[in-house]
Amino acid sequence: MNSSHPNGVNVDQLHATIHAVKDDPALAQFEFRAHTEWRSGAHVQTYVQGFRGVKQEDQSRTQPFVLEGDEPPVLLGSNQGPNAVELVLAGLTACLSVGIAYNAAARGITIEAMTLDVTGDIDLHGFLGLSDTVRAGCHDIAIACHIKSPASDKDIADLLDHVQATSPVTDIVRNPTPVHLKFVRDA
Amino acid sequence: MNSSHPNGVNVDQLHATIHAVKDDPALAQFEFRAHTEWRSGAHVQTYVQGFRGVKQEDQSRTQPFVLEGDEPPVLLGSNQGPNAVELVLAGLTACLSVGIAYNAAARGITIEAMTLDVTGDIDLHGFLGLSDTVRAGCHDIAIACHIKSPASDKDIADLLDHVQATSPVTDIVRNPTPVHLKFVRDA
Q1: Interface check A59 vs B, CB under 8 A
Q2: Does B81 touch chain A (CB under 8 A)?
């Protein structure tokens, strides 16, 4: 463990970021993006590269991340990538992981190891258009967060409460988030 | 275009699936999963492989999909993968793509090409713990859905309305979804 980078987190930079945002709230406005190209059937490829934050266009990524998306054969796909719900589950556990690592570092809590197992239960009557009452999405998402740490149960519980309250993806999933879709006809 | 697989979708299998679920609703109960291993700082690796559906454990994936997750340097990461919000945006556009391709096929609508551009606006005061009133997640998600198709504007609009109403990830994002987190102390 690097003492200036507990949990691999540059705590000096974290504090500097917090102070900078206190001085200039506009620094905290970010716009994240993704560009998805449909290939055929359930197969898509999504490109993630640029975003806007700290009042400028980020230039740090020299090439895009490419995410494959598909369905398994039982859902008429060809298994060229995880499906959309699995991507969201992965986003949720990634978000919690970052939040736990960063906030633990800020609190002086060492995380020696951490894994998260997430499950999302879904009734496909909604997706298949067979019910107006069954929701299309997951009716429950459950996460088991395994942490190895010398911190007390109380300190871990407080940490996890704070992280859940401040995790962007947890908020997106737990609470209503507006989605606006616009159709553009391509020639 | 394969006439038996419009938009690359096996419409016969789609109809067979719908009829099977009508006969046995339990076939529609699915459990999707992800396993995330935290590496250091913001870097995580997520493994997606098994799931439960049609009353059995799926065996079609012989190895896991591995998703890298990280933050960019401005958010204290090292750009080893997209961040958590970007993963969710990718899940949203993947879900809409699949829904559009499948439902268009079922309606006899040809999709010649399709791309989706999504943006998610977020104020990091929430994530940074600097505000109790600013939400942690996105305050708005906007999607431009570019479609090349011979279908009429009316038919495309009806299709997009139906897809948004039946898209699992759109529902997860737009509406409250319960997330339960359990702490497990590892030795």
Answers
A1: no
A2: yes
Spell out the CATH class of A83-175: alpha beta
User: What are the pLDDT digits (tens) for B139-155?
Assistant: 999 999 999 999 999 99
The CA-atom distances, in angstroms, between A81 and each of A33, A93, A117, A169, B116 are 20, 18, 19, 21, 18
A151 touches chain B (CB under 8 A): no
Bridge-based pairing state of the strands B138-148 and B113-123:
antiparallel
- With tokens 């449909």, the residue in question is A38
B186 contacts A148? CB cut-off 8 A = yes
Instruction: Give B7-64 pLDDT, tens digit per residue.
Output: 999 999 999 999 999 999 999 999 999 999 999 999 999 999 999 999 999 999 999 9
> What dihedral angle (degrees, nearest 10) is formed by the CA atoms of B44, A37, B100, B150?
180
Distance CA B135, CA B175 (A): 15
How far is B81 from A169, CA to CA, in rounded Å? 16
In this prediction, residues A142-167 reach a mean pLDDT of 98
A69 chain-B contacts, CB cut-off 8 A? 90-91, 94, 97-98
Question: Angle, nearest 10°, between helix axes B84-107 and B11-23?
Answer: 100
| Whether residue A1 has pLDDT greater than 70 | no
| ipTM metric | 0.98
The full set of domain ranges for chain B reads 83-175
Distance from CA of A20 to the nearest CA of B (A): 11
